[in-house]
């Protein structure tokens, strides 16, 4: 709880004027409650007992005034407090995404997208009510309690002792409940995240679900998560609502004692009936904010649990740190020296040595799982080497600024990424749209033919997964995107696998053409794609077993011969 406040309270300093207005609102509400309780005394003593007519006129007027002030106070308090809370949450959400996006690719490979969505939505929503309404409620109810305690003590200090003794007694059972609620809140948030994860997985894999008729199976899995969520939430309600009967009971005991003592004082004439009734009114009014306070405290547990889940993301730091050197303006060589890479226990690359010069097209071939994509992961620093080094010209890869590195390298991966936007935005992704350049890149990627036939041409809208395009068309958009950047290093990882033979051979020619003034790496299972590469590196079980031109490999490299024979079966 302390950490929760320590984290959010400093954010309130940007809202000084709004806090001032909300405090006025809160004071009006709290003062109004005290005022209403106090009015009971003159109503009884002056009007009913002393039969004071002036008072009879004044008290209804006072009542309207106090009640209206309270209503107005509540309105401005709710408005400003919500404003502050919503704004703090907006900033918190932006910050969290900003942080998540700095994390390494390995983090995203381990963490389920649905879980992250849940943190950014469900968890932050739970914090939202805390930083707005609950913090304000905490202040408002505390002030109301103070105002009413003031009235209670003012009317009779002795009775106040009996009336208020239950407050410290109630702390113990309430704190046990709060601890339980926090645990349940954690479980409820985890369960909410299971639901989001499952939904995101279901919608992402809907084609395979339909193709395998597993709708029922997926629904059953979802129902299980959903039931679990329901059970935890019901348990939370059961626990948190216990605070109400506990408080009611303790309150009733206190009120009973007060009536016994107070009543006998009134009978003995030591206390006026008005003071006694005002005291009782304040005491009963007092239990409402006390109960609310305990409910707020319970709800805060939920927010604290959500906050801890959010904070645990902040504790994860990126391991791939940027260097401060710019990418060389004119890349001449890339040298990969004795490089090894482990994914946890698994050694994916062992002692890799490979060099590339400007204008060269380097092909990486080999069995699936041989380590080709892993080498690409190293070149774009999705992962860092475990040993060895990679040099761009004479600069160590680690010393190069990551943004500058990735601006100068284009990668077309096996999986094609399409954004829910126009073709032009997809091609120029991350850069300003230059129509001419977009068309040029599309032409180079042999995509302009089909794009120009679409109703809105380069401004045709694509949907998120590019489902309004064929597999080959999507791949061509991805190639156009890579070319639009005019990169110094171009990496094509199975970039032509979805193309028909004819388009593939045309694009291979284009690649030959465009690789003249840059360094190009091509991974291809179809050996025809890379037959005129300047170098072919043959991967096997994380090692490069041969590097040469195809002609020589066919004579000297048994692994290449094997792949070649398999391809030509
Ligand atoms: N992110 C990862 N985390 C853990 N292991 C990984 C990861 N990526 C790849 N691997 C493992 O590393 C090994 C090499 O994989 P890599 O993707 O580099 O092979 P590849 O030669 O590109 O295969 P393919 O031709 O099928 O794409 C494989 O055993 C694979 O299971």
Automatic annotation (TrEMBL):
Alphabetized Pfam families for the sequence: ABC_membrane, ABC_tran
Name assigned to this protein: ABC transporter permease
Domain ABC transmembrane type-1: 22-302
SUPFAM superfamilies found in the cross-reference section: ABC transporter transmembrane region (SSF90123), P-loop containing nucleoside triphosphate hydrolases (SSF52540)
Location(s) in or outside the cell: Cell membrane
Membrane topology: Multi-pass membrane protein
Entry's Gene Ontology molecular function annotations: ABC-type oligopeptide transporter activity; ATP binding; ATP hydrolysis activity
Ranges that cross the membrane: 20-40, 55-73, 135-154, 160-178, 242-261, 273-290
GO cellular component, as recorded: plasma membrane
Taxonomic source organism: Halarcobacter ebronensis
Keyword set, alphabetical order: ATP-binding, Membrane, Nucleotide-binding, Transmembrane, Transmembrane helix
InterPro entries, sorted: AAA+_ATPase, ABC1_TM_dom, ABC1_TM_sf, ABC_transporter-like_ATP-bd, ABC_transporter-like_CS, P-loop_NTPase, Type_1_exporter
CDD domains membership: ABC_6TM_MsbA_like (cd18552)
Domain ABC transporter stretches: 334-566
Keyword Transmembrane helix: yes
């Amino acid at each position: 709880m302390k950490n929760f406040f320590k984290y959010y309270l400093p954010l309130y300093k940007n809202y000084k004027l709004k806090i001032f207005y909300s405090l006025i609102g809160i004071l009006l509400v709290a003062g109004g409650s005290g005022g209403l309780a106090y009015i009971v005394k003159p109503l009884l003593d002056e009007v009913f007992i002393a039969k004071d007519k002036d008072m009879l006129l004044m008290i209804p007027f006072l009542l309207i005034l106090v009640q209206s002030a309270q209503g107005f106070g509540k309105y401005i308090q709710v408005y400003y407090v919500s404003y502050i809370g919503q704004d703090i949450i907006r900033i918190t959400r932006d910050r969290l995404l900003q942080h998540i996006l700095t994390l390494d690719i390995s983090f995203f490979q381990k963490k389920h997208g649905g879980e992250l969505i849940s943190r950014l939505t469900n968890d932050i929503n739970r914090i939202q009510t805390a930083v707005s309404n609950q913090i304000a409620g905490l202040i408002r109810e505390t002030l109301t309690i103070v105002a009413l305690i003031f009235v209670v003590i003012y009317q009779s200090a002795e009775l106040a002792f009996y009336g208020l003794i239950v407050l410290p007694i109630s702390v113990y059972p309430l704190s046990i409940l709060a601890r339980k609620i926090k645990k349940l809140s954690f479980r409820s948030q985890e369960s909410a995240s299971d639901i989001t994860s499952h939904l995101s997985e279901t919608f992402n894999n809907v084609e395979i679900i339909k193709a395998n008729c597993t709708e029922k199976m997926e629904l059953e899995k979802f129902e299980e998560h959903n039931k679990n969520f329901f059970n935890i939430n019901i348990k939370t309600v059961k626990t948190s609502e216990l605070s109400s009967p506990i408080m009611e009971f303790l309150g009733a005991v206190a009120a009973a004692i007060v009536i016994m003592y107070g009543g006998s004082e009134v009978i003995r004439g030591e206390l006026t009936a008005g003071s006694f009734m005002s005291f009782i009114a304040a005491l009963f009014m007092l239990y409402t904010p006390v109960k609310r306070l305990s409910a707020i405290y319970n709800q805060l547990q939920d927010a604290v649990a959500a906050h801890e889940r959010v904070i645990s993301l902040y504790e994860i730091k990126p391991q791939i740190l940027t260097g401060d050197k710019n990418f060389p303006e004119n890349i001449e060589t890339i040298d990969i020296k004795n490089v090894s890479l482990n994914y946890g226990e698994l050694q994916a690359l062992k002692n890799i040595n490979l060099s590339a010069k400007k204008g060269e097209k380097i092909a990486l071939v080999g069995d699936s799982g041989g380590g080709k994509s892993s080498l690409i992961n190293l070149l774009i620093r999705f992962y860092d080497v475990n040993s060895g080094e990679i040099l761009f010209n004479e600069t160590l890869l680690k010393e190069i600024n990551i943004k500058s590195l990735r601006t100068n390298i284009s990668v077309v991966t096996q999986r094609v990424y399409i954004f829910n936007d126009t073709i032009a935005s997809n091609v120029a992704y991350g850069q300003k749209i230059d129509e001419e350049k977009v068309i040029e890149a599309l032409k180079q990627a042999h995509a302009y033919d089909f794009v120009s036939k679409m109703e809105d041409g380069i401004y045709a809208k694509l949907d998120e997964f590019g489902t309004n395009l064929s597999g080959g068309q999507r791949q061509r958009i991805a190639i156009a995107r890579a070319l639009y950047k005019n990169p110094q290093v171009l990496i094509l990882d199975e970039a032509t696998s979805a193309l028909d033979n004819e388009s593939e051979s045309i694009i291979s020619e284009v690649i030959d053409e465009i690789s003249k003034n840059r360094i190009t790496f091509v991974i291809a299972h179809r050996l025809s794609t890379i037959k005129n590469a300047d170098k072919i590196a043959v991967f096997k079980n994380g090692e490069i077993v041969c590097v040469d031109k195809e002609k020589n490999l066919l004579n000297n490299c048994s692994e290449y011969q094997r792949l070649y024979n398999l391809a030509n079966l």
